[in-house]
Design brief:
four-stranded antiparallel sheet, seven-stranded mixed sheet, alpha/beta, 14% strand, 466 residues
Length: 466
């Protein structure tokens, strides 16, 4: 219930009564309630909220700190959770630069002095484009799920078709976001996966390809950690019906894995979180989209693209928008998609990370992750009752099958936490047909002693149940 206050709120601007009344008068209103006339009365709260007594700033800080203290921090535990938010090493310079006053409020709008922000985003785009072996990269989206959703809608606009095909191995949460974001513009259908290897079932893909398919989307490595080595064949099948091949990718894998453009991807998307971003309780997410420098792709990006152009001063260059007129900033309600606040700060952070590591560093990180994850799987597979769910090659994540231990993943994870260890993500809700399976993640931050500690704890838990 709105209220015409007789005082100003300390944290809300323009609530000084005289200022508020002047603003209402300017737009022809007499009360704050009139701003909400379009909202049905049935949805409005018609009473005062039952809130506790207001705290002063110090009391509020102590209260919030006490709530935060209940969190179990990944740095305080030995952590093997991944599934879209991964624990990687963050070079200190990433935080140093992204917290500079020029960048810390980095936003994609125009009303601020630049202070090199446009150039920093251009450099990020250039570095990521080199990593994924494409020409054009956008200012970041909110996360991988939005990037995948937008890529699919781009494909729909390019082809004039309404169906997109996704493998069932896509994270169920991400699949729900994609479906929500694309409905009713696009129809999302699912392709089965091979229950032995975890890779896409190509026979099922062939049976569902038609002249109404706008895109085939798959991930490499995928949510379940599997490396999809059929990429060229999948892209070929998509192109056979003039559909767009879209590949989602964890960018930190590209120091050792072939970039998707080389096996036929037309659009590449993914998450920037592995490139210098802390987990932040599931935050710190940012998505990217990359394509070839072809007009049919570039003009379908809804988000901003920064380019470099010569200025009127010889030898001097400037940085600014490419084809700004295609965005919802310019077109407003007639835009292809509505694009508002974006995660530009994380783009700058990713640029810092990539410039620090360079090609050799990215290769070293990728190789280190593969060596450690395969060491972990070898040791885990020696535990009675514990096995790997899929036979396919994997990068940093893998599905561990606990069905033969007679224990639920929830029970195993509870007992691991007693040992100061975060176990893998429980997959029993998202994939009930697999029984008790968990998704584990191993990255460059794990030492051999960390992995041996996990194996010893799981061996003790499994052996006491058999």
């Amino acid at each position: 219930m709105a209220e015409n206050r007789t005082y100003s709120h300390p944290y809300i601007p323009n609530t000084v009564p005289e200022v508020r009344d002047a603003m209402l008068k300017e737009i022809g209103l007499t009360s704050m309630d009139q701003l909400h006339d379009a909202i049905p009365d049935s949805l409005k709260l018609d009473r005062r909220m039952n809130l506790p007594p207001a705290m002063n700033e110090y009391e509020l800080r102590r209260h919030i700190d006490s709530l935060l203290a209940k969190n179990k921090h990944g740095a305080d535990y030995l952590n093997f959770l991944g599934a879209g938010c991964w624990q990687h090493f963050i070079p200190a310079v990433c935080d140093e630069i992204n917290q500079r006053s020029e960048f810390v409020t980095a936003y994609a709008g125009e009303p601020y002095e630049d202070h090199g922000r446009f150039q920093a985003l251009f450099e990020y785009q250039s570095l990521l484009a080199e990593l994924v072996d494409m020409d054009v990269v956008n200012v970041p989206t909110f996360d991988w799920a939005q990037a995948a959703s937008t890529a699919i809608r781009m494909a729909g606009r390019i082809t004039g078709r309404k169906t997109a095909l996704l493998p069932r191995s896509v994270d169920p949460d991400k699949a729900a976001i994609i479906s929500n974001y694309c409905t009713p513009v696009m129809d999302i259908q699912f392709i089965e996966i091979d229950q032995v290897t975890g890779r896409m079932d190509l026979d099922d893909l062939r049976s569902k390809l038609s002249d109404d398919v706008a895109a085939v989307y798959f991930e490499n490595p995928g949510y379940l950690g599997i490396i999809e080595d059929q990429g060229a064949e999948i892209s070929g099948l998509a192109h056979g019906v003039n559909a767009v091949s879209i590949v989602g990718v964890d960018p930190i894998s590209l120091g050792v894995l072939e970039p998707p453009g080389r096996y036929g991807a037309d659009i590449i998307c993914g998450d920037l979180q592995p490139l210098g971003m802390h987990m932040n309780y599931g935050g710190g997410q940012a998505g990217f989209i990359a394509t070839r420098d072809e007009e049919k792709y570039v003009m379908e990006y809804p988000s901003r693209l920064f380019g470099i152009v010569p200025t009127e001063v010889e030898g001097e260059y400037g940085f600014g928008d490419v084809a700004y007129e295609r965005t919802s900033f310019a077109l407003r309600e007639k835009g292809k998609e509505s694009v508002g606040t974006q995660t530009a700060l994380w783009g700058i952070t990713a640029g810092v990370y990539l410039s620090l590591l360079g090609p050799a560093g990215m290769q070293e990180v990728g190789s280190t992750i593969i060596q450690k994850s395969h060491y972990a799987v070898k040791k885990l597979s020696d535990i009675p009752g514990v096995s790997l769910r899929f036979e396919g090659a994997f990068f940093k994540e893998f599905v561990v099958d606990f069905n033969d231990t007679g224990l639920s993943v929830a029970e195993i994870n509870r007992r691991l936490m007693e040992e100061g260890i975060f176990g893998g993500k429980d997959l029993s809700a998202g994939y009930p047909e697999w029984g008790q399976c968990a998704l584990y993640c191993v990255t460059e931050i794990h030492t051999q002693s960390d992995l041996d500690r996990l194996v010893a704890a799981l061996r003790s838990i499994a052996c006491t149940s058999l």
